[in-house]
Each structure stands twice: as C-alpha cells, then as structure tokens.
Amino acid sequence: MRKSFLKRIDKYGGDVYNRIRIHLEVIEAVKKAVGDDFPILLRLGASDYQEGGITIEDSKIAAQEFEKAGVDILDISGGHSGYIMAGLNGQGFFSPLTEVIKEVVSIPVILTGGITEPEAAERLLAEGKADLIGVGRAILEDSTWAKRAIESLS
Questions:
Q1: DSSP readout, 70-116?
Q2: Chain centroid to CA 68: how far?
Q3: Of 42, 53, 57, nearest to 107 (Cα)?
Q4: What does the domain layout of the chain look like in residue ranges?
Q5: What is the pLDDT of residues 83-110, one digit of tens each?
Q6: Are 94 and 78 in contact (CB under 8 A)?
Q7: Rounded-to-integer distance, Cα 83 and Cα 87, Å
Q8: 66 phi and psi, to 5 degrees?
Q9: Collapsing DSSP states into helix, strand and coil, what is residue 132?
Q10: Of all residues in the chain, what percent carry a pLDDT higher than 70?
Q11: CB atoms within 10 A of CB 18
C-alpha cells in the first residue's frame, strides 16, 4: 500500500491554488528575467492516478492559472515517480488528459505518452487530441526519427 504524502501546512500546501504557488512564482521570475518575447513552456503532470493525489480537475485549474501567468505552451503528462496506471498503453496514452486541458485553455497543448510512429502522431493531431506531439523517447532511441517521419509522411 502506498504511504500517504505529508500534508503541507504552509502557504504552499492545501488547495490547488497554494500547491501551484511555487510554479506561479517561478513563472513570474522567469518572465521578469527573459521578457515577454521568450516563450515559456511548462510540463504539467495532469494526474498521478493515485487516490488522494493530483486530479484532472486540479490540473484544469492549474492550467488556466498558468495561462494567465503567461505560460505559452503546456506539455501534458501523467503519473509520477515512474507510476503509471494499469491500462495506459498505446500511442498517446495521455490523450484523455490533453483533451480535457485543451477545453479550458487557449494556448497550445503538447501530448506525450508512448508516441513512436509518425502516423500515430499525425492521427492524434488530426483527431484534435493536442496541438503538438512530444516524441522525446522515440528520438532518444533513434536520432533520425524526425527525418524518417518527414520521409514516411511525404
């Protein structure tokens, strides 16, 4: 059985607004340092799939607040510390999360989650699951992935 997380009682604990406070402070500091012309991307673990953990409802609020703070693109993921919910498989397995986040923000949303084939990436984009596709692991395994993708889709 999973141990309970310690509940913070300072200004960074409790409700979702307090839990994202540090993110908002970092966003503000980065924007102050680099200016408004520098794009800010934020990776958001939109659900950890754990009882009492981060929920998609929390992440909808967080995504809206990050957009208001000046984040330009949200990169959506899920699970934390290597934990992934059983049944999450296939290419684009975080698409249920990106679909929900896309409904509440107007900034681009990146979908990650097992996407290794260019055709799958194109299909997910065509279905409106996301605005951009993250293929980090595919490129890590094959540095020519992007070249092959362009060739296969031409």
A1: T--EEEEE--STT---TT--STTTTHHHHHHHHHH-SS-EEE-SS--
A2: 17
A3: 42
A4: 39-153
A5: 555 666 689 989 999 999 999 999 999 9
A6: yes
A7: 12
A8: -65, -40
A9: strand
A10: 90
A11: 13
| Assigned CATH for 39-153 | 3.40.50.12600
- The amino acid at residue 55 is T
What is the C-alpha to C-alpha distance for residues 35 and 27, in angstroms, rounded to an integer? 11
* Cα dihedral across residues 91, 139, 129, 101: positive or negative: positive
Query: Rounded to an integer, what distance in angstroms lies between the CA atom of residue 33 and that of residue 12?
Result: 23
Phi and psi, residue 42, nearest 5°: -130, 130
Determine the residue type at 146: A
Sheet holding 132-133, edge to edge: 41-45, 73-77, 109-111, 132-133
The upper half-sphere exposure of residue 129, i.e. CA atoms within 13 Å in the direction of its Cβ, equals: 22
HSE, CB side, 13 Å, CA atoms: give it for residue 15. 2
Q: In angstroms, rounded to a whole number, what is the distance separating the alpha carbons of residues 74 and 65?
A: 12
* Residue 117 tokens, joined: 């084939």
Query: Which residue carries 């986040």 as its tokens?
Result: 101
pTM: 0.87
